[in-house]
Amino acid sequence: MSSYSENNSIQTFLTELGGLSRFTVQFFRELFRPPYEHKEFLKQAYSIGLNTLPLIGITAFIMGLVLTLQSKPVLEEFGAESWLPGMVSVSIVREIGPVITALICAGKVGSGIGAELGSMRVTEQIDAMEVSGTNPMNYLVVTRVLSTTFMIPILVFYADAVSFYGSYLAVNLHDFISLPLFMNLAFDPLHFYDLIPATIKTFFFGFAIGIIGCYKGYYSEKGTEGVGKAANSAVVISSLVIFIMDLIAVQLADLFNVFMR
Amino acid sequence: MSEISEHIDQNETLIEIKNLQKAFNGNQVLKDINLTIKRSENIVVLGKSGIGKSVLIKCIVGLIQPDSGVLKVFGREVTEMNQKELNDLRTRVGFIFQGNALYDSMTVRENLEFPLRRNKIMKDTKLINELILDVLDSVGLLEAIDKMPSELSGGMKKRIGLARTLILKPEIILYDEPTTGLDPLTAREISNLIVKIQQKYKATSIIITHDLNCAKIASDRLMILHDGVFKAKGSFDELKNSENSWVRSFFETV
Ligand SMILES: Nc1ncnc2c1ncn2[C@@H]1O[C@H](COP(=O)(O)OP(=O)(O)OP(=O)(O)O)[C@@H](O)[C@H]1O
Ligand SMILES: [Mg+2]
Given an 8 Å threshold on Cβ–Cβ distance, is A127 in contact with B58? Predict the structure, then answer.
């Protein structure tokens, strides 16, 4: 019995993976095929920004603040307080900023896309688009995936900046340090071989959020619960994929560092 | 039908279906469908729920791929069309969805504009606007133009769905249960609207319905779908007075 259900879950995992791969191939085929839906793309990008800006801002600010406050005593013990901004900035830029932003977007944007496309599928709006001579793959999927792919990196920059500011305030709770000096200390240990892999991976995070949300919504099961399931599994799967991608990115970034130094 | 007095167009076959089959994971929904529809003919399809009526008309616009058989619309095989040809076909064949399928993120106006702008049929905003007003007027809902679909009642949604299809002036219109879920009065209004549209746009139509009133006033011919085939064909009165009690049972009212 247990081996049967194990088999079953492996099977569903594999069919899911196959379906997602086919969907991705289809995405790239449509990507370069006109018509190019700039209007819908901009609309989506704008709404992603608008919907996530406050949440990402608050979270990033708190992360910067907390990280600084918690690291402070440890560094003080070693008498290395001046390293504080640098240490925090490296962890924000490399890890905290990209991952926190991606996870928030998976929860907010990914589930939104899954639910929207899911309900459009269930109420036959996607079929209606098709019969009015519009390729829904092009109009709905390509625009959404592109907008997450380009918006998440921008949001990560924003999150990094807000986090830095949180960290600066945290340092200033106890000591006085001017913003230029803080920035100097923060940027000193950051090299472009920190920034480049950290930025590249955010594009992949954005792509994963978009394509998984679209895939789950586009092939949503009929019925109202299908929509809920689509939204839910979009969040679960894309969060998981973000962590796995992050793991791979760390390894690749290390290799990159070795070669660049 | 006296062939001499009719316009020659009337004999043109618009839809030709032969031995059409479709199964979903072993569930044989359509087994052997044969149907020929000439220009300006109005066919009503009756049949129990879940018997495959929606599947049949979705095949006609290429939303569902049949497994085998001949499926010609305007003399061209639908299953062999490429994307461009399918799009052309779909501007000539209107489809009214069972659940309206209005785009709920768009206003009524944007819903109506969508098929026009997408098909690059029209770019001139003034012309588009005129057309929208004209088509809204023919379904009697001018005042709803700036509403969102969620603000409309069930009957209003049906009409807007109808308007969105009519705006492309299709030669063939496929109606999927246009009056289901409406009160008898509104249902009758929609049925009359369908007849009006048939006359005004000279459209050919397939109407799927459970509504006998609608079947009576809108049909030239009726077909009863059962077990994947058309079990009975004929005019409304022929089928209503059929010797077969099973056929008659479709026409029994309380
Ligand atoms: N895309 C699909 N995938 C799998 N099965 C389907 C699909 N579409 C329809 N079916 C199945 O085909 C059968 C016929 O469905 P269809 O929607 O055509 O019924 P219907 O005659 O229109 O019924 P109703 O009057 O309730 O609308 C059903 O058993 C349905 O489960
Ligand atoms: Mg149906």
Answer: yes
**Rounded CA gap, A28 and B174, in Å?**
34
The CATH number of whichever domain residue B177 belongs to comes to: 3.40.50.300
Query: Hey, which residues 131-160 in chain A have their CB within 8 Å of chain B?
Result: 131-135
Compare CB distances from B61 to A120, A125, A131 and report the shortest one's residue.
A131
Query: Is residue B5 one of the residues assigned to a domain?
Result: no
DSSP characters for A21-41? Answer: HHHHHHHHHHHTSSPP-HHHH
Partners of A116 on chain B (C-beta within 8 Å) are 105
Containing domain of residue A217, as a range?
37-260
For residue A61, how far is its CA from the centre of ligand 2 (angstroms)? Answer: 53
In a domain, A156, yes or no: yes
pLDDT at site B1: 39
Nearest residue on chain B to A37, alpha-carbon basis: B118
pLDDT of B120: 67
Residues B45-75 have pLDDT tens digits of 999 999 999 999 999 999 999 999 999 999 9
Res A25 pLDDT > 60: yes
Total structural domains in chain A? 1
ipTM, 2 dp: 0.88
In the block, tokens 């955010």 appear at A202
- Angle formed by the axes of helices A143-174 and A97-105, nearest 10°: 130
Based on the structure, what is the number of domains in chain B?
Answer: 1
